[in-house]
Amino acid sequence: xxxxxxxxxxxxxxxxxxxxxxxxxxxxxxxxxxxxxxxxxxxxxxxxxxxxxxxxxxxxxxxxxxxxxxxxxxxxxxxxxxxxxxxxxxxxxxxxxxxxxxxxxxxxxxxxxxxxxxxxxxxxxxxxxxxxxxxxxxxxxxxxxxxxxxxxxxxxxxxxxxxxxxxxxxxxxxx
Length: 175
What we know:
The chain is mainly α and 175 residues long. The chain contains seven helices and no strands.
């Protein structure tokens, strides 16, 4: 049990150092190019060290243990996990998205009883619109009210204008 705690502690130290680089990037307000340069200079060596450490530790663990499974999971996804270090536009983790989908994941069991497959699909569409509106800094109620008001008269050829990524409040349309 002590070995698992020690392994987790070392892994968290590596990960904490990587998050430290991200905090510095955000605190300094670096643009994409400078963030990429900083990540290449500071995060890449830390990622390489973490990878080498994971490989070395994994060889010493018995297959099937919880720690071995966790390390296998990480190593299997390594290329995706480190992709952020080569692109200053990418976040280090998916915490923002995880936090946005949490309400839907928590309610999933309730929505199993939405009445029919079609009703469940409609609910999923509405939830997607709401989350996309939030991601675009649009107040969902205002967005949905405006879109549902405009929808009956919106030409099909211009329906994409009502998507949250392209939507403009009706008062702004035509200006």
